[in-house]
Amino acid sequence: MATEVNESNFSQEVLLSNKPVLVDFWAHWCGPCKMLAPIMDEIAVEYEDKVKIYKVDTDKNMSLSTKFQITSIPCLILFKNGTAVQKIIGFKSKNEIKRIIDSMLINIV
Amino acid sequence: MVYDVVVIGGGPAGLSAAIYASRAKLSILLIEKNSCGGHIIITDSLDNYPGFDGGINGFELAVKLETQAKKFGTKIVYDEVSGIETGNIKKVITVNSVYETKTIITAAGTHVREMNIPGESKFKGRGVSFCATCDAPFYKDKDVLVVGGGDSAVQESIYLSKFAKSVTIIHRNAKLRSTKILQDRMLTYPNISVIYNTVIKEICGEDFPEKVTITNVNTKESRDLKTNGIFVFIGLVPNTSFFSSLTLDNTGYIITDENMNTSIPGIFACGDIRKKQLRQVVTAASDGAQAAISAQHYIENL
């Protein structure tokens, strides 16, 4: 399952993580976000050892949406060593998301 | 295997076709590019779909349609169609595979029309949006532009005005095309204004849009306008690029008869992709049901 993070634990869980992190910015009123949610849960299981998968409710964490300049959701941001390295805007299929994660993992090694 | 029916597109038309075809015990595969539901997954509330007196959320209806189709035996794959081959046994070619089938029902719908101006693709998803319902909350107290003059442009402007500080509609003609009832409603929102006879020529900014250049189509005079976001509602384009062998109308929509037959036997079209007057969920569902029954008759007579 993708774990929910918020303004108070974002730094600890995402920015200070020693593993790459993929954060799913979503909101309850966003249909495509709801379509993406089960895919992110599956990816969280499949990449358990390699990548942490988190989600942020943009309505409850406006300061994070502002900080990462989110103007359209669903929006996935990949973090590596505390830095946002890639932003993926809009609904993407599971295969596309896996391809993006895999190419990032190759670049690390 | 050779399927009885391959449906292209998982919106209300495609899923309705799938429900009827699978109930008729035809072997059926539905191919969807993104996620099932089509345009309705970004519709907050469908207030005119029969049977839901309190309205229904578009996403919820999409999930119900998908669940219903699967319940009757529809197989759904997520893949993108890149071409078709006609013949007695038809082929649907996708990015990852090739599927053989006796009939094809295309319900591939439409996509939003873009302006094709400098800056548009650079700022897509970061200041240029095609969906107010999706992105409006991120424009709280900002100044935004809406491009267009039809029902969508006016409706989405009203929705945006509840979040944005100001909404300015940029319309190329002297009058809005939208229905009077919507225009009257728009007038009750003081933060919506309209600039007529004008088009956007360019969107400029660093990370986000900062200003646009607008040009009056009559006087040809240009000026800059500061803005934080641009919402584009200038119409839809049918997804018929791989159906060029079918008879299309001059705007690219597929021409069918009332039973959803296209110009090629065994290929049927339903929903928004078809030339018709009213593009709504209720007509998409109706088209889908008819397409499935027409496919069934076609197979029985092979």
Summarize the structure.
Chain A is 39% helix and 25% strand. By secondary structure, chain A is of the alpha/beta class. In chain A, a hairpin with a 2-residue loop joins strand 4 (75-80) and strand 5 (83-89).
Number of helices of chain A: 4
CATH topology of chain A: Glutaredoxin
Q: By helix and strand content of chain A, what is the structural category? A: alpha/beta
**CATH level-4 homologous superfamily of chain A:** Glutaredoxin
Net shape of chain B: elongated
The total domain count of chain A is 1
Give me the side-by-side strand order of the main sheet of chain A: 1-3-2-4-5
For the largest interface in this structure, which chains are involved and how many residues does each contribute?
A: A-B, 23 and 29 residues
Number of strands of chain B: 17
Could you characterize the architecture of this molecule?
The complex is a heterodimer of chains A (109) and B (302). Chain A has 109 residues and is an alpha/beta fold. In chain A, 39% of the residues lie in helices and 25% in strands. Chain A has one domain (3-108): Glutaredoxin, CATH 3.40.30. In chain A, strand 2 (21-26), helix 2 and strand 3 (52-57) form a beta-alpha-beta unit. The termini of chain A are far apart. The mean pLDDT of chain B is 95. Chain B has 302 residues and is of the alpha/beta class. Classes of the chains: A alpha/beta (109), B alpha/beta (302).
Which key features would you list for this structure?
heterodimer, A: 109 residues, alpha/beta, 5-stranded mixed sheet, globular, B: 302 residues, FAD/NAD(P)-binding domain, 2 domains, 5-stranded parallel sheet, 27% strand, elongated
